[in-house]
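task queued by scheduler; priority normal; single chain, no ligands, no partner chains; default sampling; output format set to structure tokens
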Amino acid sequence: MEIIHAFRLKGVEPASVIEDCMSLGVHIILPDSWVMIRAMQYQIENKLDPYDAVALSVAVECKCNYLFTRDKTLIKRISDIILAAEPESILEEELFKP
């Protein structure tokens, strides 16, 4: 939802965004009611925006190792929950190298 919102603000049609994401092998995961309840808790406890809270909740539920974002405030606010970093850091950090 956040990706579609961001691209819509730039005048890009949502259908093409979804097609592009899927062509890259990106899986779209729909949160269930428990994920949304946890997202609300994260939003309250960590002072997150709604979209960020949902993304965090899905990442935790799916047992993701990392959450990549360019939102530096989000990275700081969720550092005790999941390892979060800017996408470019995957190329720089030893932590992400095999």
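post-processing summary
- Strands lie at 66-68, 83-85.
- Residues 33-46 form the longest helix (14 residues).
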